Amino acid sequence: MTAAAAGAGAALQVDRLVIAYGVAAPAVREVSLDLAPGDVHLVVGANGAGKSTLLNAIAGTLQAAAKLVAGHVTMDGSRLERWGPARRCRAGLRLVMEGRRVFPDLTVADNLLAGAHLTPRSAVRAELEKVFAHFPALRPLTARMAGQLSGGEQQMLAIGRALMGRPRLLLLDEPSLGLAPLLVDDIFGRLEEIAARKELTMLIVEQNVTAALPIASHVHVLTDGQLSWSGPREEFEGMSSFAVSYLGANHRPTAPHGEGS
Ligand SMILES: Nc1ncnc2c1ncn2[C@@H]1O[C@H](COP(=O)(O)OP(=O)(O)O)[C@@H](O)[C@H]1O
Ligand SMILES: [Mg+2]
Fold this sequence. Notes:
Elements (H helix, E strand, L loop, with lengths): L11 E10 L6 E8 L4 E5 L6 H9 L6 E10 L2 E2 L5 H6 L2 E4 L11 H7 L6 H14 L16 H14 L4 E5 L7 H16 L4 E6 L2 H4 L5 E6 L2 E7 H6 L1 H8 L14
Parallel strand pairs: 3-8, 3-9, 6-7, 7-8
Antiparallel strand pairs: 1-2, 1-4, 4-5, 9-10
Adenosine-5'-diphosphate binds next to helix 1.
């Protein structure tokens, strides 16, 4: 299979993936996903469901205790599990880890530049401008130490740093974790703008289903390591049992993209 053109999203296939920590029951059991270039898929699930394990398996950042027991992951047809994290990074994969990991003792500017170590020097300025266009709050903070930023600003920086690498596949691990509700809506609004550029494919794992749902075309429900349901967002919203357990009894389906506000 030939690689997709630069600036286009990657295809991602996860095929019956099984990941276990030691001898415990697998944390991820026979999980399969299929994302076309430019897709935005959402994996929802409770604490401990296996969301981070799944993303780390795709990114190549599993902890030493975790073992890929079975299954495989392909990005544009290349078998990722044969590659280390650096090679996956060169192929255009980026993970924004849970808990907004930034370099606290580096400035905002240096954090962003650290994300651009594989980006051609001639393109860095333009990528920086794109990050500031999506996250204008970061522009006046470039000289600030990242450790001094608010939680919301750090999350914007973590996402911005990933974007500086011009990813074709962006994995986001609970981008809303620990943020105030207004900031959560803001972050997902920005992610929606980024997705609309159609330059990358996104896989988001979240517990805050209500906030994340409007930007996804497909939803997967992870329950104790297994996908208990997968389908289009509209179908997820239409099912009263899911709507009530994940979204609350008063939920109204979101308008399709491009309509309404
Ligand atoms: N280092 C580890 N050693 C043993 N078990 C782990 C380790 N990390 C995670 N687990 C277990 O794997 C399961 C999935 O964890 P995780 O992927 O972090 O879930 P989530 O991100 O959905 O909260 C949980 O039962 C968790 O206790
Ligand atoms: Mg997690």
